[in-house]
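Support reply, case 0932

Customer input (verbatim):
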Amino acid sequence: MSDWRPKVEAITDPVAAGRLEFRDRNGARGSFEVKVGTPRAFEEGYYCPLEVEGLFPGVRTIIGTNEVDSLMNAMALVRRYFDHKNGLSSDPLPKFE
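Our regenerated output:
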């Protein structure tokens, strides 16, 4: 099965970018860089480009039914990684190929 999601090489029009700091369960501090692109329409709905340096490779396109939904889904994924890194959640993280 091929990946039908739009391919984005780089985020050139970020709506938000910055570094999130965390402290893990052992008290060690760390951070990761987040860049969120502008949501865009495509044949299957909408996507929001998301890059999270050090947590998954490259830019991922997060899908939604409209611009706001795709942005909310992207930020929900960032929150999930943030909570995991802070030791607030032990839920498994999504695997990206």
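We compared this against your earlier run and they match. Two observations from our side: The chain has a mean pLDDT of 91. The two ends are 13 Å apart (CA to CA). Please reopen the case if you see a mismatch on your end.
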